[in-house]
Design goal:
Layout (H helix, E strand, L loop, with lengths): L7 H19 L10 H8 L14 H24 L4 H28 L7 E15 L3 E12 L5 E8 L1 H6 L4 E4 L8 E3 L4 E7 L4 E3 L6 E6 L3 E5 L5 E5 L2 E6 L3
Antiparallel strand pairs: 1-2, 1-8, 2-6, 3-4, 3-5, 3-9, 4-7, 9-10, 10-11
Length: 249
């Protein structure tokens, strides 16, 4: 219980110190919907958020980590020592604020998706995606890919797709493409507001491209999915960009 003698200014300092602590920590957190918000803040003011292209040392953690440490001193001074808010209570408030920030980020990201035009309305759910293959004489003899897409708009989407990765591009390896058994480019579709599991294998498709060995095998998480349609729209969905990247603009 708060002691008498504390004025509204003291209470505001205590409350804002906890909010500041949660906000600075959240700036360092990468969610399934976006890079850490601190990345965008630093890039907006002209600073680098990573030493590489979203790789290497995460500079955002350094910048906002310093602010987070400062916030801990402020919480201790204003919330714990002056307002006598227990450390457990501070932790619970912190967890609540983090939950609210995460939920708000998800709501905003999904709303942007639902109002995006064309194939940008489709999102890639990276959880549990996987691909396995085995090749012989530079040709797939076994192949299976499983991943989930969500159409956040109310309109049905029809498209072709291919599987790619930054490592393929670095090595000059062509993306994996899917054709019908009679040799035509395969079409796929997903209904409005539908989440659909795609399961692709050699029983239903002719599959070209990718890293095919004389004799070898491989697999793992699907890093990137390219979607393209007859209107000329091409987007890339990957594990780091929920909103997708337009490749034809």
């Amino acid at each position: 219980m708060l002691e008498r003698g504390f004025n509204m200014n003291d209470k505001q300092k205590g409350g804002w110190s906890i909010i500041f602590m949660a906000a600075t920590f959240f700036m360092m957190v990468t969610t399934k919907y976006s890079h850490a918000l601190g990345d965008y803040v630093l890039e907006f003011i002209g600073l680098r958020s990573w030493t590489g292209d979203y790789s290497g040392t995460h500079l955002t953690v350094i910048y906002f980590g310093i602010l987070f440490i400062i916030s801990l001193f402020l919480v201790r001074k204003y919330a714990v020592n002056q307002l006598r808010i227990g450390r457990i209570s501070v932790l619970l408030i912190f967890i609540l604020l983090m939950t609210i920030f995460t939920s708000m980020t998800g709501l905003v990201a999904r709303n942007i998706k639902s109002n995006s035009e064309g194939l940008l309305a489709i999102g890639y759910n990276t959880d549990d995606s996987n691909m396995k293959f085995q090749s012989r004489d530079n040709k797939f003899v076994e192949f299976s890919a499983e991943f989930e897409l969500t159409n956040y708009s109310s309109e049905k989407k029809t498209f072709h797709l291919s599987i790619d990765s930054p490592y393929y591009r670095e090595e000059g390896v062509e993306e994996i493409e899917f054709y019908t058994l009679d040799g035509k480019l395969a079409f796929f579709e997903i209904g409005g507001n539908e989440t659909k599991l795609f399961q692709l294998d050699l029983d239903e498709y002719n599959i070209t491209g990718g890293r095919q060995f004389q004799n070898g095998s491989g697999g793992g998480i699907i890093q990137e999915i390219l979607l393209f349609d007859d209107k000329g729209d091409t987007i890339r969905l990957d594990v780091q960009s929920f909103q997708g990247i337009e490749l034809n603009r």
